[in-house]
Amino acid sequence: MSLVKCPECQGQISTQATTCPHCGYPILPVENNKSKRGRPKKSDQQSLMRLPNGYGTIKALPGNRRRPFAAMVNPKLTLNEDTGKSYYTYDFLGSFPEKIDAYKAILSYQENPYDLKNDLTIKELYDVWLPKYIDDNNLDDNRRKAYDAIFKYCEPVYDIKVTNFMPAMIEDLIKNAYKTGDRGNEAGKRIAATSTVKSNMKILFNLLFDYAVFLRIVSDNYARTFTINTSKESKQTSRVGRPYTNEELAILWDNIGDIFIDMTIVQCYSGWRPGEVITLSVNNIDLKNRTYTGGIKTENGINRIVPIHPKVLPIIQKYYNEANDVGRPMLFGRTKQFHGSYRYIENSFRHSLLKKEEELGISGHVLHDGRHTFSTMAKKYGINEFARKKIMGHAIKDLTDRVYTHMDIEWFRNEIEKIL
């Protein structure tokens, strides 16, 4: 027997220990790591994992069961008036095939307790799910606000029990979604959901009912039993993107200094998506090597390194210095915080850019048109197709290029600087 460190708290523990005496972390012997089914052995029943006081307990259920370990929480001291003896009662959390699964379930429950009566309303489920989802996925406050904005369209079903939901109910809610305006000219008015909002509602319900299944409130995710087709509606209501003409680009260059025009020009020479350019982190700007790193949405687009085109380098330097002066974490943004944030949201970007372009005699554009412009100019000036797709964050379909081709940043720089 010797001493080793607990992987959880780094405390000294015996190699024979099944749990850490300091923090209760399970230390399973190698021979016990194999999956077991059926009735637990007596030794298993006698060595149940230690949990912090007040967390609950794990009980071995009798019989030959597929899930022989019951997770019990919320201990309550109860007095037997007939015998005068006291004992603990628990709420049943769930049964599991392995002790470690029951142990983890209890710890997860104690981190974010919820009503075990299985009569949560959709609003109560959302209030339990959101902080856990934000914390588990390390998301920022802007994502929380985005989910709150989408959930406003679900107000008609706030008080309906999760167990009473049917697929048709969710589908009907999304197809006919609306919210009541609460500010400005929209106050008190009924606002219909756009196709994008409806798609996001479907995603939100998928996540909510995934969590409801995890909590054992329902056995199936009803939201995943149907699809919402908003593509036709989206095509009818959205404008088709198009690149800026040479004349329009010249007008934009004549009006640099406006942050929304500056962001658009940067898009034209980098291929960033609107959501990517407004979230570029100052920490990911490398002026020495003239690159910026960013990207969202797809596996190919996330954390991609793009060379800074010489024509937009002065713009990047200006906002880099400004961000450091005001303490702003992102390259482009406000000079003073608004509602606790320096960041512009896409709606602000869209509204302000279209208004400014209208003043300059430019019309008919959408936020993605800077990206359309980059792709078009890249094709026009003969940028290598592999470079164009990698810079834009698109998937490479050719096996040889996708798996076996590795080009350095200087090669990409030479390609992007072909754009005049």
TrEMBL record:
<dbReference type="GO" id="GO:0003677">
    <property type="term" value="F:DNA binding"/>
</dbReference>
<keyword id="KW-0233">DNA recombination</keyword>
<dbReference type="InterPro" id="IPR013762">
    <property type="entry name" value="Integrase-like_cat_sf"/>
</dbReference>
<dbReference type="GO" id="GO:0006310">
    <property type="term" value="P:DNA recombination"/>
</dbReference>
<dbReference type="InterPro" id="IPR002104">
    <property type="entry name" value="Integrase_catalytic"/>
</dbReference>
<dbReference type="GO" id="GO:0015074">
    <property type="term" value="P:DNA integration"/>
</dbReference>
<feature type="domain" description="Tyr recombinase">
    <location>
        <begin position="239"/>
        <end position="417"/>
    </location>
</feature>
<keyword id="KW-0238">DNA-binding</keyword>
<comment type="similarity">
    <text>Belongs to the 'phage' integrase family.</text>
</comment>
<dbReference type="Pfam" id="PF00589">
    <property type="entry name" value="Phage_integrase"/>
</dbReference>
<dbReference type="InterPro" id="IPR010998">
    <property type="entry name" value="Integrase_recombinase_N"/>
</dbReference>
<dbReference type="InterPro" id="IPR050808">
    <property type="entry name" value="Phage_Integrase"/>
</dbReference>
<keyword id="KW-0229">DNA integration</keyword>
<protein>
    <submittedName>
        <fullName>Integrase</fullName>
    </submittedName>
</protein>
<dbReference type="InterPro" id="IPR011010">
    <property type="entry name" value="DNA_brk_join_enz"/>
</dbReference>
